[in-house]
Amino acid sequence: MHCKMISFLKAGKPVLCMGVLICAAAALCRSAVEQTLYQFQGGTNGWYPSAAMVADDAGNLYGTMLEGGTVGSCEGQGDGCGTVFELKPPSQRGGEWTHSVIYTFLGNDGAAPQDPLITDGQGNLYGATDEGGLTDGCQPGGCGVVFRLSPPAKKGGAWTEVVLHYFEGVPSGNGLGDAAEPNNIVLGSDGNLYGMAYSGGDCATGEGGTVCSGAVFELERPANPSGTWKEKLLYIFNVRSGTGSPQNAFFDKFGNLDGTLGGGAFGFGEVFSLTPTAHGAWTLTSLHDFTGAPDGAFPNQGLAIDAAGNVYGTTGGGGDNEPGDGTVYELEPPAQQGGAWTESVIFTFTGITTGYCPENGPIMDGAGNLYGTTASGGGSDFGLIFKLTPQQGGGWSESTLYSFPGGSGGEAPNTLNFGKSGAIFGTSSLGGTNGKGECGVLTCGFVFGVAP
How many CA atoms lie within 13 A of 256 on its CB side? Predict the structure, then answer.
């Protein structure tokens, strides 16, 4: 049984069906039955929820749509440049969630958002777009931006977007240039933003065209709130080494900036760490190179980190079964800075019963249980939600919380997250009803909830 990875090729890199819904509402019935909270309609309403959402203290959800908005505003993206939306929970259990579009991208301010949003705790939202902004170095769609959305001063007012950085992606004479196609960003303890970029950085042109390795960047917060954020490339990967396209930025227990890469020593991906030095440079260290079997291949977007600093993730393929349906892995940090990290496989997917081909990372509750999704498997082979429970004496047990039926019931679920009530929320980019029919065969996607 081969992994039928549901992914889309965009700008020469795999774009997985991703979306993290971080939510907070006590409006979900506590049952094992999946509940559809909102069905996207297409057009100005937006379609294809492939990026993360984040919740505020009131339980409102904020997320992005890959396309939708103003039709014809993006070259090569006839259905619009994407939107940012808000979902408000009902005042009473069982009521309807209220959807509103709080921002519509027009291209020069960003386009095609498909990575997690974050918040600074003051109501501001930060995110990255894969395209849009400046177009000289990344024709025709632009190199991407990092943006901030600030809430209205008065209820009912408009949200305000500010582009914090326009990526240029244009190699200079020495082959090095700015980054392009930024993905997930994180907020550092210093108030600066850090992130990864799939492309740009070190580029080489051959018979197959131009290939770029990507980079890790920092955006320094200005002293004046209305000032300019200053970009610095912390590390540029070597395109000739075959390693690049970084993602999954996170700070480990030692304060190092870590992430995952494509390529690596065996070509199956790796986890890396960047350590700052006294001279301002950052030193690259490989924490783990995936070997395909038994530890898996091609680490996915999305990681869970526990209080001890252990990191949990999934691989889209590989494992100790044939042909390789993916794994859940753990990386345990050393006791002291500079020591070796220990990688172990805590679960191997084996087909329809357990699910197979996860495309997103897991989440962890306060008891140490892991929850995640697979793109395939389950009763109808359209994907499922799984739970991994640590066992006394070692090992993990897997159980299925929900199997997606396909069609109007959804398929290929995206990344999950918890609400304040302990309920689990997520999105399905595929399946659901067509709404107004503007999304065609793919449908528009929907938001769902399942009680653990």
Answer: 22
